[in-house]
Write a structure and sequence with these properties.
The complex is a heterodimer of chains A (139) and B (217). Helix content of chain A is 19%, strand content 29%. Chain A is α+β, with helices and mostly antiparallel strands. In chain A, helix 1 runs antiparallel to helix 2. The longest helix of chain A is centred in the middle third of the chain and has 15 residues. Chain A is elongated. Helices cover 19% and strands 39% of the residues of chain B. In chain B, the strands form three sheets. Chain B has a six-stranded mixed barrel. In chain B, strands 10-7-9-12 form a four-stranded mixed sheet, with no helix packed on it. In chain B, strands 8-13-11 form a three-stranded antiparallel sheet, with no helix packed on it. Chain B has four helices and 14 strands. By secondary structure, chain B is of the alpha+beta class. In chain B, strand 2 and strand 3 form a beta hairpin. The chains are: A alpha+beta (139), B alpha+beta (217). The interface between A and B is medium-sized, with 34 and 34 residues.
Chain lengths: 139, 217
Amino acid sequence: MAMMPKRVKFRKSQRGRIPAKATRGNTVAYGEYGIQALGCKWITARQIEAGRVAATHFLHREGRVYVRIFPHKPISAKPLETRMGKGKGEPAQWVARVREGTMLYEVGGVEEDVARQAMVRVASKMPVRCRFVIRRHGL
Amino acid sequence: MESTTLKAERRTDLGTLQSRRLRETGRLPGIIYGHGKDPEAFSVSAHDVAMELQHGARIVALDLGGASDQYLIKEIQYDHLDRYPIHIDLARIDMNERVQVKVAVELRGTPQGLHEGGILDSLMDSIEIECLASQIPATLHPSVAHLGVGESLLVKDIELPDGVTSISNPDDKVAMVHVLATKAAVEDAETEEDAGPAQPERIGRVAESEEDNKKND
């Protein structure tokens, strides 16, 4: 099942804008390798799940996949063939607001070439361009 | 570690805009502080700094206004893609004083536990040490080859060079070998998740939402 928050303060949210650059969550923190978004986009819970499944299937349950983003934002939609008005639609999906530089997924416990291939498969599920990154040790 | 002397220039125009313009010309803004003296803003070739960092330098020699001296790299800020340095902090040091620095830990060897179905989890990528400024190790290379499933490498297990002491918590785990969840357990967890509610619970609005629903009906 797609990810979504367990409890929320408000059921619906305004669209908002995504600030340009990630100032946190932009480094490899848990695994050894990761993929980083090179653009700003909403990433839906289904896309996040698709990426996770693609990585775990490719790795054959070796290593460990870390999902670094979470869909906190509800997106509402009106039912089909409904006239305009009558208020805001009901929440239809949940998305993560991803800034340029946000680390999307990380992988640990596998070799670099395996991690790279897994991340290529994950990147193909994402609606943004991504780049493969290796954890920096030290400064 | 040997390092070349970097040619630095004093910065008089400070601020975001000036720093941005400096970076566009291939220079890296930085600041020197410590030892109770006034801080000094400077700029240095970004390429030269990148080369020093690539070689694991912790101390850089800087030629600033004709006077050459050695400084400890305290912090480096990177851009939003974590790719290029955008600012460097240097601290004045005496080569005979003891300094506290973070040193990278790179694990060596393949743990025994990997052959038993375990996975190596690296929990810390650096530890804090205290040593003479002239003796800062570039990286520490503890072996994890002896680790079985469920065993961990602690900070106190890392062999340090002479004159180097660790100031991190000795019982902190640096790396651990543990068993991944079995396929059946993962499937169970996924089916439990499937049974969850379609919409999240509303914080502090349960009663009101029920009233709203009644009104809508």
